[in-house]
Design brief:
This protein binds to 23S rRNA in the presence of protein L20. It holds the Pfam family Ribosomal_L21p. InterPro entries: bL21-like (IPR028909), bL21-like_sf (IPR036164), Ribosomal_bL21 (IPR001787), Ribosomal_bL21_CS (IPR018258). A hairpin with a 2-residue loop joins strand 5 and strand 6. This protein has no helices and 10 strands. It is mainly β and 104 residues long. The strands form 3 sheets. The chain has a 4-stranded antiparallel beta sheet with strand order 2-1-5-6, with no helix packed on it. A 4-stranded antiparallel beta sheet has the order 3-10-7-4, with no helix packed on it. The protein has a two-stranded antiparallel ribbon with strand order 8-9.
């Protein structure tokens, strides 16, 4: 089974065909096909191809399953005995994709 390491949204992911993962928000409709061009590594069995910095000609295709927002993160800053407390909340947007193919 071949695998690849792709870079999207400032993060790196190790993916195989059929994997479902949540990446940073992509500008694509649900059900659309997206292609990741920044492939850093491709491996098949014992053979591994490492890019410098990317593998030329390699792409990973995926299908957009849904868009959404992650669970709320609470940020609290508190200084004891100083009458200071600051609260903030954040929900990160994501795109859930399913890997459909690795073209090395």
């Amino acid at each position: 089974m071949s695998y690849a390491v792709i870079k999207t949204g400032g993060k790196q992911y190790r993916v195989q065909q059929g994997d479902v993962l949540r990446v940073e928000l992509l500008n694509a409709e649900e059900g659309a096909t997206v292609s990741f061009d920044e492939v850093l590594l491709v491996g098949e069995g014992e053979s591994i191809t490492v890019g410098a910095p990317i593998v030329s000609g390699a792409t990973v295709s995926a299908t957009v399953r849904k868009h959404g927002r992650a669970d709320k993160i609470r940020i609290i800053k508190f200084r004891r005995r100083k009458h200071h407390k600051k609260q903030q909340g954040h929900r990160q947007h994501f795109t859930e994709v399913e890997i459909t193919g690795i073209n090395a």
